[in-house]
Amino acid sequence: RIYTSEHIHKKQTIIMEKDDFHYLKSVIRIRKFETFRLFNSQDGEFLVTVKEINRASLEVEVDSQIRDVNQEKDLELALCIIKQDRMIEAIKSAVQLGATRIIPIISSRTQYKQISREKIQKCIIQSVQQSERLSIPALEQELNLTDFGEKYNNQQIIFACESESEDKKISSISKIQDKPIILIGPEGGFDDQEILMIRSMSNAESVSLGRTVLRAEIAVASALACVSMIRS
Questions:
Q1: Rounded CA gap, 222 and 226, in Å?
Q2: What does the pLDDT look like over 55-91, one tens digit per residue?
Q3: Distance CA 2, CA 35 (A)
Q4: What is the pLDDT of residues 23-51, one digit of tens each?
Q5: What is the number of H-type helices and E-type strands within the chain?
Q6: Residue 104 and residue 115: Cα distance in Å, rounded?
């Protein structure tokens, strides 16, 4: 199952190169006349047949459409930047749980001020392929917490807070709105001034993720899973 940014239509011939060619030829070891699935977020998912395998490319023909594009519910993740391998694990979980937008956040305790966009974008695409989704979540530019508060003040912010009462869970929120943002802090959490700023936002909902302190990547999976189950 391979993602392409190109448009797809029946009887079209498509040339697969570079990473996709390597994956299909050397990892999957696909053979001539075998089939696989090709998809994008504009046209849907199609069955394609391998017609030729060349030294550096693979030629396929589009046979039939398997799935049309479906509308996904908006679910956004604002995650403070953490160590790259853990950031990637967090984003993999988020994509598999239905996140439609990823917003990297810089806070006062954030040790890393930038993300490796190329590696994270590749991770997002691989997670979409694995999870049978069609749409590729948007990866926003890094944003400091103050600017995040100003830009997204009108959206519902579900803020995972370690000091919140255990009784105040995601399931106790009266209504999950159409476009919620899950906000997860950095290692060591947000400082006191940041917590006050977040709680002052008009649509912020402070919640507990349980009695134990979770690593950021586990907090991401826990929060998004809760929201997804409530909205399903």
A1: 6
A2: 999 999 999 999 999 889 999 999 999 999 999 999 9
A3: 11
A4: 999 999 999 999 999 999 999 999 999 99
A5: 6, 12
A6: 8
The pTM score is 0.91
Q: What is the pLDDT of residues 179-213, one digit of tens each?
A: 999 999 998 889 999 999 999 888 899 999 988 88
Look at the alpha carbons of 90, 73, 209, 195 in this order and tell me if their dihedral is positive or negative. Answer: positive
Tokens 């977020």 correspond to: 41
CA distance 19 to 61: 19
Q: Cα torsion for 127, 114, 180, 124, to the nearest 10°?
A: -10
Q: CA dist 142 to 81, 95, 187, 201, Å? A: 9, 18, 17, 20
Phi, psi of 139 (to 5 degrees): -110, 110
For the record, the structure tokens of 105 come out as 């956040």
